[in-house]
Amino acid sequence: MPDKSTTSEAPNSKTPTLKLDDAKTNTAELNAAPVPSGPARKIYTIVKYGDPILEKPSNAISKFDAELAGLAEDMFATMYAAQGIGLAAPQIGKSIRVAVVDVTSGKNPEAKTVLVNPEIIHFEGEKREEEGCLSIPGFRGYVVRPQFVTLKAQDLKGEWFELRGEDLLARAFCHEIDHLNGILFLQHLSMLKRDMIRRKIKKLRKQGEW
Ligand code: NI
After folding, report:
1. Domain extent listing, the chain
2. Is the pLDDT at 93 greater than 70, yes or no?
3. What is the CA(8)–ligand 1 centre distance, in A?
4. Are strands 98-101 and 127-131 parallel, antiparallel or unpaired?
5. Residue 23 class from Cβ within 10 Å (0-12 exposed, 13-18 middle, 19+ buried)?
6. Is 9 considered catalytic here?
């Protein structure tokens, strides 16, 4: 993958790069993809960069009840509506350690993964790919992540499980767990690149466009 360090804000890039929360490029037929049915779900407004909730560590979850299960479904609905492949609770304004991931964008129901109190327990290899984030729309950057990741997490019943991910899935796990620790992908970019994006966002905010 060539270094495109000067194209942080290239939402229309033709490159079929891997985008994280924001997966528009590899989900051309997303609108036709089946969205899980069931009761009508709440679509949350996604919190944008600048809100302090995105930069503080979230609290562990200890109550595994119907409310949590409902929240997870609402998070999937919110993520699919935003054409994302991962979403962490702080992004919907909740400082709790739950994230949802589906790198198939709703095409494979078995790919729907809820991670409660997740932690990376093993990683290996390195991959440098472009990432985006639903909370930082319109901006992307290359981030080095492990190629393989094993995490442990609890499911909606509180049962611990381990899960291994490779490439895009490993990247999604790292990106979402970062969110739960108050870390955004911007923090993995060079200072130069990060400052450039921050400046542009500040400008957008002044213009009332952020
Ligand atoms: Ni994100």
Report:
1. 17-206
2. yes
3. 15
4. unpaired
5. buried
6. no
